[in-house]
Amino acid sequence: MRRLLIPIAFLAATPAAAQTLRAVPAQPASEADALRGVEVFLVNEGEAPVTDSGPRQIEITAVDGTRLVLERAPGPLPTVAPHGFAKARYVPVGIAGRAVPPTEQHAAADMPEGETVVQSSTGSSGAFVERFEPHEPVYGAFGLKDAGGKLQVSLAFRPFSENAPLKLGNLRFAYTQTMFWALNQPSGPFRSTNYSPEIYADIPLDETTRVALGYRHDSNGRGALDSVDLNRVYLRAEKTFDLGGDWHVDIAPQAWFYVGQIRTAPDVKDYFGYTSLTAAIGQRDGIKLSLTGRGNFETGKGAAELFVSYPLARIAKGVGFYIFGQAFTGYGEALDDYRKNDTHARIGIALTR
After folding, report:
1. Which residues contact 4 (CB under 8 A, 6 or more apart)?
2. 3-class DSSP state for residue 261?
3. What is the pTM of this model?
4. Among 61, 67, 60, 17, which Cα is nearest to 42's?
5. What is the DSSP secondary structure assignment for residue 76, as one 8-state letter?
6. Which of 49, 295, 318, 329 is spaced 20 to 30 A from 115 at the CA atom?
């Protein structure tokens, strides 16, 4: 459990807010722990509301004695009620007496402009690594009989930095591919694949609330005669509730409408519907349970999918993935069989959750 610590010093605080707004950060264990982000409570000790995001920089001392300079991560200005508080997120940008090299800074503090170059099977390869983000879970899970294997890769990419003009820093490109492996058949073919590119704007409203507006295309990749594809414009809201003790709850309702023509599968809307809801509860570096439900209220058809994950590093030190369980019931797990009502359970590993 981290202790709350009144900061040693305020650097570049807003003069008006400094009179009534006090920043009280959680005390990280070390510099490495602080790289994940430090939660700071902005306490309004005055008698009037204050609209301010707190001091730009503060100094704190970690549990191991390291003196850190923290900088406020980008985000909207909160309005703090009299004698109330708001939460802000800070990341380390230096250690007292020296600056932290860019490679050690947290991405939210300053996104590097250059590429990262590493050795690969083709020699040296480069990527803008700091611009990639997890999107949907990346996993491989396997079940008995016709459940087979279900493999998913998913990522999002930020083409513009946080401070880009016209709010372009909110833009994301994402791609998810879900493959169904028929391990119960002699040759073990991949019987179906869902392809899902999308583009969306991810807009933070405060430290715990975001909205996303985007376009998503889902396809089974077939030809003109047996193609199943969906084109949707969606609006999603995401809210995180801090339960204390590193526990949190995430709620994400989503609604969409279909665009374009659905030629070979005009009834697919009856099974996918127009809304979904995801609810998750988890502990940082601990167990996480996530449940998503979607459907069509008029037809009564829909689906639910459950994810359960636990970091193996808690069991075997140094292991960098999760043990993962996945279960699905309802219609449309694979687009090829969207009219089929299936129930499957699988277990495997996940790289993101």
Report:
1. 24, 25, 26, 27, 41
2. coil
3. 0.70
4. 17
5. P
6. 318
Q: Does the annotation mark 219 as catalytic?
A: yes
Q: What are the tens digits of pLDDT across the range 252-286?
A: 999 999 998 777 888 999 999 999 999 999 998 89
Tokens of 226: 């047996």
The catalytically annotated residue of 161, 217, 227, 248 is 217
Angle at CA of residue 259, ends 258 and 264, nearest 5°: 85
- CA distance linking residue 172 with residue 231, whole number of Å: 17
238 neighbors 245 (Cβ within 8 angstroms): no
Pull the structure tokens for residue 193.
């694949």
Q: For residue 289, which of 264, 262, 308 has the smallest C-alpha distance?
A: 308
Confidence (pLDDT) at 105: 40
Q: Of the listed 219, 227, 309, 344, which one is catalytic?
A: 219
Residue corresponding to tokens 């996940």? 350
Whose tokens are 């690969």? That residue is 120
Q: Specify the 3-state DSSP secondary structure of 137.
A: coil
Token pair recorded at residue 312: 């193996």
